Amino acid sequence: MRFAGTLLAAAGLALASADAAGAASPKAAVHAWRQAHEKEILSDFVALLAMPNVATNVADVERNAAYISGLLQKRGFKAQLLTAEPGTPPSVLAELKTPGATRTVVFYAHYDGQPIGQKGWISTPFEPSMRTALPEARSIDWKAAQTLNPDWRLFARSAGDDKGSIQALISAFDALKASGVKPSVNIKLLYEGEEEQGSPHFAALVAKNLELVRGDLLIMGDGPMHQSGKQQINFGNRGITGFRATVYGPLKPLHDGHYGSWAPSPTVMIAALVMSLRDDEGRILIPGVYDDVAPISAADRAALAALPDVETGLKTALGLGRNIGPPRLADGYMAPTLNVRAIHAGDDGPNAANAIPTEANASFDFRLAPGETPRHVRDLTEAWLSHEGWFIVRAAPDLATRLAHPKIVRIDWDEGASIATESPMAGPAAKAVEASISRTVGYPVLKLPFMGASSGMAEIVNQLKAPMVGVSIANYDDNQHAQNENLRLGNLWDGIEVYAGLLADLTW
Amino acid sequence: MRFAGTLLAAAGLALASADAAGAASPKAAVHAWRQAHEKEILSDFVALLAMPNVATNVADVERNAAYISGLLQKRGFKAQLLTAEPGTPPSVLAELKTPGATRTVVFYAHYDGQPIGQKGWISTPFEPSMRTALPEARSIDWKAAQTLNPDWRLFARSAGDDKGSIQALISAFDALKASGVKPSVNIKLLYEGEEEQGSPHFAALVAKNLELVRGDLLIMGDGPMHQSGKQQINFGNRGITGFRATVYGPLKPLHDGHYGSWAPSPTVMIAALVMSLRDDEGRILIPGVYDDVAPISAADRAALAALPDVETGLKTALGLGRNIGPPRLADGYMAPTLNVRAIHAGDDGPNAANAIPTEANASFDFRLAPGETPRHVRDLTEAWLSHEGWFIVRAAPDLATRLAHPKIVRIDWDEGASIATESPMAGPAAKAVEASISRTVGYPVLKLPFMGASSGMAEIVNQLKAPMVGVSIANYDDNQHAQNENLRLGNLWDGIEVYAGLLADLTW
């Protein structure tokens, strides 16, 4: 009876009342229900994943929101769509009160997805496809299979990031209902529709609907599990602010034989700009950018030190002959990181030409540590670029501007940005989550002070000042944000049990 | 009577015998014939440009070769297609003997073109379109026009580089024939079909057909005129060798929030590689790369110093707030240049993702000065990359290689490469060309010791050891190698007269 848990029994936490009421334990009942309904759950998940949800296409995003609202209304939730302003991606807010419950838990996830145009997709992003793991990725006729291997993976955009969390919670709810287990808390589901755009309107959306989304605990269902394969919870995310830099060469493309020794090359200029901001070892070269970073607490250091060693295995799995930054992966989350998302200059492949292009660009995102603000990091970045001789513009420069300034860079900051979120690891609600998941999985859940990623959740935490715990169910190798995103079936099954445990027996 | 010339009359050069025979001077006759046949010439040129000729598509290239052979056979030339080996792009060799002539002049041009996939073409590259100059580029119905404005431009791939030279010579031949003017020399036309690929088979083609292509003077009809708008001749081209560098990150794309502080970024690695080879001021950073460069002769220095100042006007026309390298454009041709053709890393625009890509690449070409060899420059480049910590591979690395080496770069050298060509400015054949063109244009033609560009001609010059003179007719702003390539009509008309002058009165 793993659900009752033994490892944390000494903590003296009350088990959910349903545990005593049913013939089987809730955990056993959920487990049995899931096993009996795997193909139905998968069919529902495939239908959810088949809906295009690239964050930049608001019409697609709205279709997803309406569909998810419908799923929840069918289950007795009171669902509505919230927007910051008309035409912006809606969030789904769904509420279900539990008679007698005194706590309200807000479960956050996001239903929008990253763009899909990356090269190398082995299947169509919005036609979910069951396969063995990469690199083999053999196609599986799962509907015809007698049993479903938990190591199979469902390939689709958002399978891991982040529709898997939505499916797992809905299936957990179905499992509890079928087993006659009542939730222990009032439930609010808040499903965001623009997380993959950096949540440009989410702060306003939350501010506008503050009372509607208020709760006593926020559970953020996003991000991957620990690379060791163990369940982890986290208590924060880094902030984010990104930008695109465009540098300018000649007004017309030039033959590089005739002009290469005389005309400035935007291709070289963009490489120089990149290397003035960050080095190959991951150090950010912008003066002052580390100054605001909050010191790391002793509790955080202890939690980081307790994480299993995964780095050696990761290097082998990823084919890396080295790492950059601190040797331990999660140690790097405590500081800002500057990622260079892309550099594009000139034509390559069949369109390659011996020419000097007219412009070049690079795209960046900062992951911000606690203490930093997007505003200050932007100011420091622009001050450094100015110091390095760049004249900063906000639109394509006109001829007079080009002639007056030898080095011009256009900076377009991403619309969305957020500060880091941090929530105490030792609060009663956080401890209740830790205990519930540890009971479900049968071992002490890993605790990560910070996720490396960012989240629209930051805005809720900062506005509602409720404690937050991140609960991730996706396999770490789910290729989120890239081609061939996938969710391992076993992770979906485990996720259903984790969510069912939280719904059934969270008390504090 | 511009054709007879007055400026160089003092040089005492003999005029072509035809000058005395005809009622009008050959120059006047050619001029009149061209004026009377502008639309026919243009129709022929449009038909030639409408044939797709991207150098990588051998079938297209072969169709062009057959078509051009046909044009020349109709005019009495003995034409044949030469190849280095079956399946490689053919060169057209066409020959016409002139009774009594003692000299054979080989006119070189190339009929293949650069790729066409660049963004921003205002018309379709192989549907020639008459327009006013950029940026307005207003479409013109030239067939309905009463007169053709010489400032109009015909937009099409290869209009300037290099089918314009072919059309100008064919029309010059037609003009002389119609005027009853006999050529003064035996004519060979050698039209290459893979120049824009770096002439990978041209050396072998010439070696295999050495006697067929032999001549007493090579005239290379390629490249743009001087930026001042004055006619220039040149006596050499730089060599070329290029490569593509691919660097490797994780085997799978990674979420940059979770892994950006730990996993090496190929995006940053490729920028670092670029900046280790060349700086933003155009200096090549590879040790030894300038050591082989031949010293600049006093004659070359004098010729360079005599070139009109175009740099100030060029900066304004190109919207450049600075130049790199030597202040004078052509001074830079006397040294090697490393051009960074392209950098590609990660996805941008609608496919942008906050991810670390698996690899990144950059593409380079060296323009080589006299004294340098592609082999030695390649060796120096690879030695420097090794010194900088790169492990060089020739194919995508396997897992063991990735794990054994922290920084891996795959280097793919371009198939085509050539050394620089240099021919004496003061030889009798070169002087005859100088005099002929000066007579035609009515002023002392500008002399450029070197073109910045490269040419398959290098192989002929080096094998045949005949003097070479480069004669360019295209407007300098013809956008060769880029989108919106175009030839100014006035340049085509002047080019016809220049070629007619060379055909009619070259003697030495």
In short:
With 508 residues, the first copy, chain A, is an alpha/beta fold. Chain A contains 16 helices and 20 strands.
Q: Determine and state the CATH class of the largest domain in chain A.
A: Alpha Beta
Q: What is the beta-strand fraction of chain A?
A: 15-25%
The greatest interface between two protein chains, and residues involved on each side, is: A-B, 106 and 105 residues
Q: How many helices of chain A? A: 16
Protein structure class of chain A:
alpha/beta
Overall average residue pLDDT of chain A: 92
Count of separate structural domains of chain A: 2
Largest sheet of chain A: 8 strands, mixed
Q: First CA to last CA of chain A: what distance?
A: 23 Å
Rg of chain A, alpha carbons: 24 Å
Strand order of the largest sheet of chain A: 1-2-6-3-7-19-8-18
The number of strands of chain A is: 20
How much helical structure, as a percent, in the residues of chain A?
A: 25-40%
Shape of chain A: globular
What CATH architecture of the largest domain in chain A do you see? 3-Layer(aba) Sandwich
Identify low-pLDDT runs of chain A.
1-23
Oligomeric status: homodimer
CATH topology of the largest domain in chain A: Aminopeptidase
Could you name the CATH homologous superfamily of the largest domain in chain A? Zn peptidases
